[in-house]
Amino acid sequence: MTDNTDTSTKSRAGGRRASNIKERIKQDGTEKIETGKRAAAEQIAEIADAIDMAGAQLDQSQPTLANYAAKLADGVGGLASRLREDSFEDIYRDVRQVASRHPGMFLLGSAAVGLVLARFMKASAEQLESASAGEQDDDISDEASANEFVYDQGGGEPGDAESLRRSRDTSPPEPYGPSSTGV
């Protein structure tokens, strides 16, 4: 009889542990979503400010575009406020309602958001690549200048700067040597 009692006590304790772990994972996930939501709201608010500033610059030269920019900035700013203030569940429920009421509009909006995100990510990647290439070019030109100084002082050889560039090239050598076809 005590074996059954011990087994049921252990299973209840295991069930409570599993429930606690499940609750902790759910809480951690909710916290991460809220943190991401706040960060997104801040970035969206910055975009709204940029649109508003662009509209202010257009105000005198093109008032119609400035009006559209102001309306867009208000809409984007409202989205940022809503992200800050509403819970994730509220936003999710509203998105589902819009999707069920207006599926075509939802799909077009999703495609537009996808395109904007893709362009943003591509631009960010290009910016990182150009910054990285700029730093590498600066290093090479600094070392080349140092080698030219050594050559001017009577030391070194004329090809030092070029050999330095080649030594920094980390691409693997061609398996059959340099191409002799001239292509």
What does this structure look like?
The chain is built from five helices and no strands. Helix 4 packs antiparallel against helix 5 (160-168). It is mainly α. The model is unreliable at 149-156 (pLDDT under 50). It folds into two domains: 1-101; 103-169.
Write the topology of this structure:
Layout: H1 2-58, H2 63-85, H3 88-101, H4 103-152, H5 160-168
Helix pairs in contact: 1-2, 3-4, 4-5
Keywords:
183 residues; elongated; 5 helices; 2 domains; single chain
Quaternary state of the chains: single chain
Number of domains: 2
Number of strands: 0
What would you call the structural class?
mainly alpha
Give the helix tally. Answer: 5
Distance between the termini: 87 Å
Uncertain spans? 149-156
Strand content: under 5%
The main pleated sheet reads as: none
How confident overall, as mean pLDDT? 75
Helix content: over 70%
